[in-house]
């Protein structure tokens, strides 16, 4: 909700595996007006506001994609505005960012709307990271990939079992909301405020009583569920310390039944040393940089992988369904023959 991440990668088949070489990634904050409108759109809004945001996000995405050229294909996740879950069943999801602007700026085919087909097939359309993690982290030991975005999601990779991916609850979304509402800043940079605070036991317990945590995986959630509401009567330092503990406890509790030998963290949350330390006290934590994928850009590289697999018509997630929709570029559209799902992912250094 605070900016755009983009990456370019060289991706190719390597026998039955996919080989990916991360080449470059960049991050750009949203303009202040766009960021404010995005956060406002999480509450009551209008069709006109959503239409305008769809175009603004598409235009900003197009400029970022053009900055990363040359490329052959673009995949755009878009900005999640709403993830509709009812009775434990995902009913729909909405990502804004009109892909036509990217096509117009780059002349390339664009794959977008990568979650909808899985939801239509009875899946959750989330988290998508399991596609990459299951191929990347397979081996003899039980390993978990942890993404600390607005929402925290994990993928369990176990020998002899299909990957299990689900959202654990908030990662940065409540922390960022608390920082924004108490200090006017978009985040608690480097966890400085939280480091000076003391968790409030009563508030922490109330937050832990949220029924989402008791649901069995697979499950998904979003910012529309985890909002602060009326701010408690606490100093900003203590509020942020409490929310940091909330993220660390709920992630650790979600992983506890599986006792992973290693938890590989990525996402914006790894920039927060206070949050990282709270997780390290509870989990055998490493970061994805140690394994060849930049922690700050892992989701962007995930999108590159999903685009490559969609282009090759590889079925993913729930049943034999190809994710995403294709907007043709300036050249005639010619897809390669359909391919079977890969057996692994190899990260190469460029």
From TrEMBL:
<dbReference type="GO" id="GO:0005524">
    <property type="term" value="F:ATP binding"/>
</dbReference>
<feature type="region of interest" description="Disordered">
    <location>
        <begin position="330"/>
        <end position="350"/>
    </location>
</feature>
<protein>
    <submittedName>
        <fullName>Anhydro-N-acetylmuramic acid kinase</fullName>
    </submittedName>
</protein>
<dbReference type="GO" id="GO:0009254">
    <property type="term" value="P:peptidoglycan turnover"/>
</dbReference>
<dbReference type="GO" id="GO:0016773">
    <property type="term" value="F:phosphotransferase activity, alcohol group as acceptor"/>
</dbReference>
<dbReference type="GO" id="GO:0006040">
    <property type="term" value="P:amino sugar metabolic process"/>
</dbReference>
<keyword id="KW-0418">Kinase</keyword>
<dbReference type="GO" id="GO:0016301">
    <property type="term" value="F:kinase activity"/>
</dbReference>
<dbReference type="Pfam" id="PF03702">
    <property type="entry name" value="AnmK"/>
</dbReference>
<keyword id="KW-0808">Transferase</keyword>
<dbReference type="InterPro" id="IPR005338">
    <property type="entry name" value="Anhydro_N_Ac-Mur_kinase"/>
</dbReference>
<dbReference type="InterPro" id="IPR043129">
    <property type="entry name" value="ATPase_NBD"/>
</dbReference>
């Amino acid at each position: 909700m605070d900016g755009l991440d983009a990456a370019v990668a060289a991706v190719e088949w390597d026998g039955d595996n996919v080989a990916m070489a991360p080449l470059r990634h960049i991050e750009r904050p949203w303009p202040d007006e766009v960021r404010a409108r995005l956060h406002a759109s999480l509450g009551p809004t209008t069709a006109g506001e959503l239409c305008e945001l769809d175009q603004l996000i598409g235009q900003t995405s197009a400029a970022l994609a053009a900055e990363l050229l040359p490329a052959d294909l673009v995949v755009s996740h878009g900005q999640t505005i709403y993830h509709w879950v009812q009775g434990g069943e995902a009913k729909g999801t909405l990502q804004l960012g009109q892909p036509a602007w990217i096509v117009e700026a780059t002349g390339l085919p664009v794959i977008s709307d990568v979650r909808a087909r899985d939801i239509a097939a009875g899946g959750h359309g989330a988290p998508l990271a399991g596609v990459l993690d299951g191929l990347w982290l397979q081996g003899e030991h039980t390993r978990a990939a942890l993404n600390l975005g607005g929402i925290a999601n994990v993928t369990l990779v176990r020998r002899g079992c299909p990957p299990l991916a689900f959202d654990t609850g908030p990662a940065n979304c409540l922390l960022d909301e608390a920082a924004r509402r108490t200090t006017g800043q978009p985040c608690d940079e480097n966890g400085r405020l939280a480091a000076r605070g003391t968790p409030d036991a009563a508030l922490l317990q109330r937050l832990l009583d949220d029924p989402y945590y008791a649901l069995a995986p697979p499950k998904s959630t979003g910012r529309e569920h985890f909002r602060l509401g009326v701010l408690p009567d606490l100093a900003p330092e203590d509020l942020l310390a409490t929310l940091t503990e909330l993220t660390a406890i709920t992630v650790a509790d979600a992983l506890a039944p599986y006792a992973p030998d290693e938890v590989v963290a990525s996402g914006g949350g790894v920039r927060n040393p206070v949050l990282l330390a709270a997780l390290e006290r509870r989990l055998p934590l490493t970061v994805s940089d140690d394994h060849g994928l930049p922690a700050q850009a892992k989701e962007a590289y995930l999108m590159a992988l999903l685009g490559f697999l969609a282009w090759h018509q590889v079925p993913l997630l729930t049943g034999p369904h190809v994710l995403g929709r294709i907007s043709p570029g300036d050249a005639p559209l010619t897809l390669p023959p359909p391919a079977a799902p890969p057996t692994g992912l190899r990260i190469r250094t460029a």
